[in-house]
Amino acid sequence: MSDVPLNRIDTVAGNLASPSDYLALLKPRVMSLVVFTALVGMVMAPGGIHPVLGFTALLCIAIGAGASGALNMWYDADIDRIMKRTQSRPIPMGKITEGEALAFGLTLACFSVALLGLFVNVVAGALLAFTIFFYAVIYSMWLKRSTQQNIVIGGAAGAFPPIVGWAAVTGSVSYESIVLFLIIFMWTPPHFWALAMFKSDDYQRAGIPMMPVVSGMAETRKQILIYSILLAPIGVLPTILGFASFAYGVAASALGVGFIVLAIRVYRMSDDDKVMLPARRLFGFSILYLFLLFAMLLVERCLGLMGFVA
């Protein structure tokens, strides 16, 4: 793109875009996590759902998550051009224009919400609409650039999918789905603050008030430890409340202890640590932690439905 003048990028971007560029707009890695947690919410819900409706619900949730990603990239195009970790996205690369991304995101958002509401149920459709609105407007347009608590409050957007999945089956929200929400909600701050620690220069250049930039590394390390300690018992709640087995509770407890141990290592880190290996390890483990918790719930429920678990 070095031979394309910056003032001409918007006029030629549509000619440069490929299907993979539009796929990148959807944030497929984030979408995969959304679909997975929504699937767990659907499978955990009592009763059942017709396979065609279940597939339609998951497809709508995936499209809705993709719409949120596209709208986020549209609004964040200015800072994505500054941050090293986002400069290769389609808009900063000049492959898709901001207008195209906005139109793409709005179209997918409307389509996914309408399809889910009409073919599955109105409650699930409304929850999906609120999730998209929360991520695109409340988080991306407001919280992300205005407060260091951006990821704490904004993390709710990423925690809604299991509730949407549950509602797709039952047409309602219950305490079980709220527990699944709480696990993701409390997991989000230590997960993203660990990332922000070793990407703080990026956030500082872009003017994003992430906690390491605003309050410093010491406060960030303390907050990571606090949220990790709070997260550990919440991860065990499915067993305590009776909708997961004792074996799940033991495994969740062990994972929670591992999370806290890594958070303690981050807390004890030196401010002069340039490599930030403890933060990188916590970030990597946090992904495994969330995946394993939801995978265990999914496997247990599936085995129960097949009669292998009482």
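Second entry:
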Amino acid sequence: MKKFTLALGLILAFAFGSFAQSTSPVAGGPEIKFKKDVHDFGKVKQNGNATTEFVFTNTGTAPLIISNAKGSCGCTVPTWPREPIAPGATAVIKVKYDSKRVGPINKSVTITSNAGNTPTKVIRITGEILAAPQGATAPVNKTGGAPTTL
């Protein structure tokens, strides 16, 4: 019975020891560091320029590969570098918001990469799209009749 208890204790100690090692952070490898996580557009006119760039650096020791960048909706479109980013190199992720929609902006872009420190990183855009002045709307048919089709 003592041998069984000793064997069970050794197995448990080995299991806990190997689990602790597998969950510790990996030394070296690619790491991503953004200059800023949030961009505030402030107040933007409807159909105005709502594009920004998020600058990031690979602060790790191996090439950083961004496998995906996905906006939280179809109105938020990211563009990211497809080639590996060398250690110490800086690159940008461009984010364009569809500014024809009026109202507050609070959208996110989820970035997936091989970074050891943050393999999934969320960046955000905020602000407000102001409605275009009434005189800037589409032309109105002043004849009073229905629009004609050619």
